[in-house]
Amino acid sequence: MTKRTKKQLLIYLGFVGPGLLVYLFIVAYPVFYSLWLSFTDYNPNKGGAWNFVGLLQYKTMLTDPYFYHSLKNNIIVVLVSVFGQIPIGFILAYILYRKLVKAERFFQSMVFLPQFLSTIVIGILWKRLFSADGPVSRIIQLVSHDPSAQFTMMLSPKTIMYPIGFALIWMYTGFYMIIFLANLQKMNTNMIEAAKIDGASETQIFVKVILPLLSGAIAVSTILAIAGSLRGFDLIFAMTTQGLQRNNAMVLPIFMYQTAFQNYSNSMRFAYGSAISNAIDVISVALISLSNLIGKKLNAGEEF
Amino acid sequence: MYDFKAVLGKVVSYVIFISWALITVLPLVWMFYSSFKSNEELTRDIYALPHDLVFNYNDEYVVISPSLNLSYPYDPETDKRPRLIIESATISPTRRLMVYYLLKENLPETIAGLKPGDTLKLYELPPKIRRSISWRTFWFNYSSSFLRGGLGYKFINSLVYASFSTFLIIVFGTMIGFAIAKMPFKKISAFVMSIIGLGYLISINSVIIPLFLMLSKVHLTDTHLGIILVYTAFGLPLSVLLSTQFIRDLPGSLIESAYVDGASTLRAFYSIILPMTVPVIITISIISALGIWNEFLLVLVLASSELTKSLPVGVYSFSSLTSTQLGWQLAALVLATAPAMLVYFSFQKRLTEGVVGGAIKG
Amino acid sequence: MKKMFKTMSVLLLALGIVSIASAAGSKEAAKETAAAPEKVVVNAMAYGDNSNQEGVNWVRIVESFEKENPNIEIKYEMLYDEAYHQKVVARLASGDVPDVAYMGADARWGAPWKEAGQQYDMKSLIDPEMYNLDLIPPMGPNGEIYEVPLGTSNITTVLFTNEALIKSLGFDIPKTYEDLVAMVPAAKKAGLDVVSIDGADGWAWGSCYMSAIIARLSGDAHWVSKAVAGQNKFTDQVFVDSLAMISRMVEDGVISKKSVLVDYGTNASNYSNKKALFMVQGQWAAGGIENPEVAENTLLLAWPKLPGEKTEMSGSVAAAIQVGYGITKQGASDPAVRDAAMKFINYFYSEPETIQRLRDGAIIAPILKNYTLPEDLPIISKRKVELAKTAKNTDVIDAFLSGAANDALNAGMQKIASGQATPEEVAAEVEKLLRK
Lengths: 304, 362, 436
Prior knowledge:
The structure holds three protein chains of three kinds.
Chain A: H1 3-37, H2 56-63, H3 65-97, H4 104-112, H5 119-130, H6 135-144, H7 161-186, H8 189-197, H9 202-213, H10 215-231, H11 234-239, H12 244-248, H13 252-261, H14 269-302
Chain B: H1 4-34, H2 39-44, E1 60-63, E2 83-88, E3 99-103, H3 109-112, E4 119-121, H4 127-138, H5 140-148, H6 151-182, H7 186-198, H8 208-217, H9 224-248, H10 252-259, H11 265-276, H12 278-294, H13 297-302, H14 311-321, H15 326-346, H16 348-361
Antiparallel strand pairs in B: 1-2, 1-4, 2-3
Chain C: H1 2-35, E1 40-47, H2 53-68, E2 72-79, H3 81-93, E3 100-103, H4 111-115, E4 148-149, E5 154-155, E6 158-162, H5 163-168, H6 177-189, E7 193-197, H7 202-218, H8 223-229, H9 237-252, H10 264-272, E8 276-281, H11 292-297, E9 298-301, E10 317-320, E11 324-327, H12 329-333, H13 335-348, H14 351-359, H15 379-390, E12 393-394, H16 403-417, H17 423-435
Helix pairs in contact in C: 7-9, 7-16, 9-17, 16-17
């Protein structure tokens, strides 16, 4: 190595080094730490000795009914995001793009506003709105003329995901709307004009021209939606009270948090929690690959 | 023929957007005006307009004797001037939450001579004192959540986290981006890029347990530094990706001329590259700062003392521990949302573009 | 745009620097005082918050203690609620063990200290002249005392009774469960709840409700601890029957179905705004009744006679060992620190402070030997002392049952109340999780 390249290498390292070190120490290392932890019974509070316990934590997880319950809820959240937020966001963007409403800037900023508010604050607000004798219950009471009527959907595990799904759609749809709107506005209008001249109908233009052009944006949105939904913690955490309600609405990140940081009677809480969070990562990579695969298949079909 | 379908489409579009806007605005409006209601009012009627805190002219006050559970706004050791201590009998009575310490020298004799247990009406007090108490009654929920919830300090903490982390994310990110895009050592660069790219898949939530264990080992939990470092590290992937792409597209000749002279690489970076990357820096700052401003789990786990809590965690724990004071909670929610909404409505276009830019390019 | 960005970033940075500097400044100041020689420093973890009486009192007590004892410095970290528990775990994990901390002997308040081996038997330090040792229950297997309880046993199953409201509906203080049922139609008509409970909090069902019911129906004050030890089973008919009391009360309208949506604060403000005839909570909730008129009219009762209850347990209430400040093994390892810590604890429990706690409604009765009850004690506090003197004490469930089994029981009772599970199912799940 010449003196010059050596010097260049030093400069190069000087530029890359600081950031990379922070990154390696705080992002990369914990990934391996988490993996290692999940195969042990390590608890620093208990002397800090660690023993290799093999797949014990994963076995516990796979026999824990809460794991499947959280997984089910998490899948609901993913479905709400992918088949709720994205299509609705698309429709809203399309309405704005075709200028079907006036005051579009006002409406756009209203739908997008929740993005900028803290999820926790929004969660607490919705919890208040849905509480016993709270604002929503009062509306039901006024409409039904029954002074003891309540909004009971937050009670049962069968219905609790409806109000939560509603809040999720309200919160995040704006984000996808803006993405689609930006892509629509970027779109080359010549193709649409050409299709119109060819005598294509609105629906045909939409299906044959606009949708394919936006397939990239749809794919990106899907990945973001899946990754975001699996990690989502704040909104459900803030909307529910600790106990039955939160358990009913439990998703994997909350399950992980409660296991590791609230269940003081489990001496393997950190190791077990790590196993859960590793599972979240595996599921999220699997779902993203699956959606990529499906996306490719669909695109391949359109080639004909 | 008038196009029936088009009209229908318009109507449906308006219905969707108007109801969406209402669902967004109405809860916020309710939250805002309810934050000026007393606890009792909120239990009595959840929709009524504020009354008790606003129309307080006739409020009754009870004279109380000094006791251990009063927190004096002056030092009773040094300041021995005689005072009349009164507590509201209307708002949170007997809880020692709304107590005033009136200097007897400012009071007419009839009032100064009152004994513990006696009552008086607010309008009986001298106008100056009356106005001040009236005003403080009006802002009772806000001052309580601000002072007792320590929300002011937490607001500053959130600012510190967002600004310092974003600053570091940009410095480190553009430095790495510059090195990868414009320096030799392509193989190392590809390697660095792939490692950092993988970070895109990892969120704070998924490694929160090891982070907590590691940082408590080195005593960085519950410190500003620990939290800023974590935010910085997790903001890097996006920052590196965006700035590499951007710097790669900058005209190479410009940089090479400066880069030939190795000693001034840093200066070239500072004076030529950085100013040109401002658009992408803005995008990165918006996404990073917004994410950090609203982040919850990391601070919930790492920060336990009042000194390090951020605004979301502060509001959350305040709402759980003062759950009997609904009015304070609503005021805290308003205090937490108002600044964000202000920023949003002033820089709306820029912010929207920033978020979209990050999402699409990323 | 460049300009806006520049000004914004400069502004943000400046703000950040100012606030960090001020934070560092306050820490620096704290260090300087610590630097004075031959000062004994006691590291403490305090329980409280700027917004509550506990926190305000702690700060005041430390200040005046340090003024009287210039050679002792109490260096404390004050936290409240979940944050406190989390910080305990974090500090124990990193080996940064405090000398004095707020702790208890049960699964929630004692477990981390026990796990870390930091419990220390304070028996030899407790002055029998100052404290009434009969009122401090044993906390360890050999009668160890790990902390000085703030007060006497903490009654968790109080039936707060709004006497005036009941009389106004034309009823008397209920003697039996049937009396409660008889009030339902009149209360409904007036738009009131009969018994209000904060059913959204799982722990309220276990601590404030079921702990009383199981003792009544089984006739055994220690049924729960025996069950955890394996002498009884949670699937025993008597426990299933106790759980079935929940669905019976909901069906009878004594407890409203919406209870499971009501949280702690709403419960208290419903009761204090005369929206319910009774409220189920622990004794500490007496301090949270905001309306002085309601507080004055409130009787603190045990549950009336329940159908199927054993006579030997009638009128009983569940009570647990109060939490309080204790010295850790770490704190006891240095005699100077240990003695300073005990001196502070004695100061903290001194008569005027204890009486103030009584006044604030934080405790039931002092554990001190000599004290005089003030004449002007709020009537509700006097009634509390009365209840503590007369009622027989029984086990509080979560003092013995912990972890997954306890969570399942609490959630299970919420399910029963909202008609999502049967008593048998819940009993079976608790038993299964406990014996695992």
